[in-house]
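From the pipeline queue, job 12 of 40. The input is one protein chain; the requested action is below.

Action: predict structure.
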Amino acid sequence: MMTIKSILAPALLFNLALFDVCTGAGTGSSKGTLKQVISPFFKKACTPDGCVPSSTVCVFDVKLVAIGNAIAYYEFNACPGVQQPTLGMIQGVEYRFNQYDPTNIMHPLGYAYYTDGAHQNVDELEPKIAPPGTGSTCAETNACQAPMYYQDETYQGDYVPTGGVGSDFGLDFYEPFFKYPNFAWGGPDAGPKTIPMVNPTNTPVTSPLNWNVRLNLTDTTFLGDIFYFCHIHIGMSGRVKQLSPVDGSILSPNDFPPLEGNLRGAPLYPAPTYKIVSSGQETECGTVGLNSFFEDKHNGKCPTNYICTEGLTFNAEAEVFNDCLDAMNCAMQYSMIIVPNQTNPLVTFVHSMVPHHENAIQMCKSLLVTEYAENDPLKFPDLDFKALCWNIINVQSLQIMEMLTYLDAADIAEGSAKCFDSPAEAISVSSNTGFTNQEPFLISIVTFAAATFAVAVASFAAAGYFTGGAGGVAAAKTVESPA
């Protein structure tokens, strides 16, 4: 009989197209082997030993991975090597999400009933927001299930899950710190020294600051999925499956609502495309969207090469890095050949600036792949290239999101101003219609067609989804755990 480890390990590490359900390690327990849970839809669950229905507290350690994906995805200790995983949370058990790792800066966790929370103008888990479809009156007493935000062991709100007190669950204190510089934000890289600073409420605090979020899913009338997301960046959501407080089985085997897009709300930001990951030659670069730009003369997309290496020799790592830079520089130049907007220069600015920002992010991802990001040959003390690149990725990703929002508000598609399919062949493209030919990168603002939703809804109906329990969720089905 094959071991669970032999079955799961390759899939958890490499098959990003499949969803993996994870539950964090239980308090006071040692990490054990992964247990596989198979749902009727063949989902896998990585559940470290120790987190069971009788647990009081379970813990997820959180970090961000920027290499090999579109923005940066959350990674959890219970699911090593899996980016943007589906998590499993047992109802009635407190989960602590430790955002101690310095990669968490600019990525404060949030929780919502639909993808991307506030970014898409949909309901989040808050004391005054009842779970959809339950008819709960919990909002009247500030008693709806909600996360609680902590600095070290100090809760920063006045909301309590039993209700009857306040509605502040600590987010307004927590989130602003994640926009601070690294040295002030805290985390392990802050070192042993104490760094005085003032938070938004003028209360002196010190660094390092062990930021953590605690969430207990207590509403047993709601069996559906929820989503974790980043309060600053769109496109980083992942699914959370609720698990039975009796046997740990998945309460709603159907993945609903969909991860990409949502079935309600008026989005404040363009809908992202999820699970874009490196493939082919660019896997060595840690980038996405560059494969068609690698060949000689970039498959006709650019008139020349941008890295001149004739007669020079490099070590293997530097040679790969050079090839990556050459491809991404062509991608930027190609994407910046545009027809200017006739009535609004700001639209022209955005069409030109987004590829420029994308190139900076791609360059940083490629540098982070190499040893040089942490091993400067000059040992120069005044520039930390790893920190520099993380800041570029985080800040310029946010700026791209804001610029694409402007295009969305103007009802103009990203890439719609593209005027050349190649340097030799101009194509007739209106400045207000169409899409770029460049491969997808970062945030796509392609609207999900009504037909897509119709097919999805029909599929759910055929599966008997809409005939289930509270909140439009199918009745619980037992999920077997192999011995």
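Job complete. The CA atoms of residues 374 and 380 lie 11 Å apart.
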